[in-house]
Design goal:
With about 350 residues, the chain is α+β, with helices and mostly antiparallel strands. The chain is built from seven helices and 15 strands.
């Protein structure tokens, strides 16, 4: 490690990154750093938005985001020869990234004097732990975003009882047969390629169906649950919505997620700090900016260098602005239980 304040060698950086990769490749060691980010992964997989202005090195907080708008296409009486129609819009607009979060740790040289610890491996584990904390922050933020932007379910008959922007379903209905209702709701609300994000709702039913395959009468359960992607998050969905147990039904492309990092994977000197970025090991495409400095601290008659690291993320979730109607946001929420009394 360097002993001059604010100097971090490229060699140290390469070695630490290699140790992070090695830890992640070890199925046992990586368990401490695997984040609960299933809802974010499902959004990234299903987003259709295009982002621009994400170039590394730009200091502004803005990005360009665009969705194709085909809402105004209608049928009309036939015409002879003339070809015309509604112009499709990409709805590109510049938006500002407003959500910023950081996670920090520090390491003192003194602990390495006994040779019980490898400095670079300790720092590598610090990076993985700090990155995991930011990954899980984005997962919890997504659930809050879904709640803020939920739309109105137009299907008012059947197993669901619509109340405002929530649809309540009695506990007895939460089984494989409920997938037919969700399919009808998706179709009536004009959701294309729908998918679900759920907490504890349906988790045990799906688990049992998967492990009871082949037994008489159970194959159909697996087929019903397999009719629509269900992404389970047992850590954020129910925690954010407590005490309610909530399941989300989403239209493909209704939500988009992006982050922006200012620094690349090599060290950049910034005043008395060194800065670069590292990848998230849990969320593909996300990189976190690293701010590093060190300082001299004394303990008795000994001087030790303290290495200080901060991981920083800047990003946001965005709602597709072309949902075609004001109440059709592409996000519906379903709560296990009865409609609460007013």
């Amino acid at each position: 490690m360097s002993t001059a304040a604010g100097v971090f060698s490229e060699t140290s950086l390469v070695n630490i990154q290699a140790k992070m990769d090695a830890i992640w490749a070890d199925s046992i060691k990586k368990q401490d750093y695997v984040a609960n980010v299933e809802p974010v992964l499902s959004i990234v997989k299903n987003q259709t938005a295009t982002f621009g202005g994400l170039l590394t090195g730009t200091k502004d907080r803005t990005v360009d985001i665009g969705w194709v708008n085909a809402c105004d296409i209608e049928d009309e009486a036939c015409s002879v020869c003339a070809i015309d129609g509604t112009e499709l819009s990409t709805n590109i607009k510049t938006v500002e990234l407003e959500t910023c979060r950081e996670s920090s740790f520090k390491v003192e040289d003194g602990i390495f004097h006994t040779n019980l610890f490898d400095a670079q491996e300790v720092i590598a584990k610090g990076f993985l732990a700090a990155s995991k904390a930011l990954d899980e922050f984005w997962a919890a933020t997504l659930v809050a975003f879904l709640n803020t932007n939920k739309g109105v379910n137009i299907v008012t008959d059947g197993k669901g009882n619509v109340s405002g922007t929530d649809t309540y379903i009695l506990p007895a209905f939460w089984d494989a047969g409920l997938m037919a209702y969700f399919a009808r709701v998706a179709a009536r609300n004009q959701f294309m390629n729908p998918f679900m994000i759920s907490g504890n709702n349906l988790y045990e039913q799906v688990w049992n169906a998967n492990y009871e395959r082949g037994q008489a009468g159970d194959e159909s359960k697996t087929m019903k649950f397999g009719s629509m992607p269900i992404n389970f998050d047992l850590f954020n969905v129910d925690a954010v919505n407590s005490p309610d147990l909530v399941t989300y039904l989403l239209h493909k492309g209704s939500v988009a997620f992006t982050t922006k990092n200012y620094y690349g994977d090599s060290v950049t000197k910034y005043r008395d700090q060194d800065r670069w970025s590292i990848p998230s090991y849990n969320i593909p495409g996300v990189r976190y900016d690293v701010h590093y400095t060190d300082s001299c601290e004394s303990e008795g008659n000994y001087d030790f260098m303290t290495h200080q690291f901060k991981l920083k993320t800047l990003g946001d979730f965005f709602l597709n602005p072309v949902g075609c109607t004001e109440t059709r946001t592409g996000i519906l929420t379903f709560v296990c239980g009865e409609v609460p009394e007013e």
